[in-house]
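User: I would dearly like some help making sense of a protein record. This is the protein in question:
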Amino acid sequence: MLVKDYIENCLKFAKETKKWESLNPYSYYLTNGFSWNETCDGNGGGLDVSWAFNMSNNEIKKLAPQKFVDLIKEEIQTAIDNDLSGDEIGELVNTLLK
């Protein structure tokens, strides 16, 4: 996923949830780069977009690039903490950034 794809999906999430009063605290709101999805367990993978809820387009455009980097870093750190091999971490990075 490219940064621009992440930003576009954060904007789409904010637009499509604009009339919602709140997010379900037991759901995950993730993007795979093509669209965003709400799941109960996050098993489909993807990067979090929930932080963009009720934010303006300008705020999202300003904050999303750094959020993208932070989320990628968290995914890599989790892989390291779980003792994934170098090859597995490489596959993870390729999956996240394709």
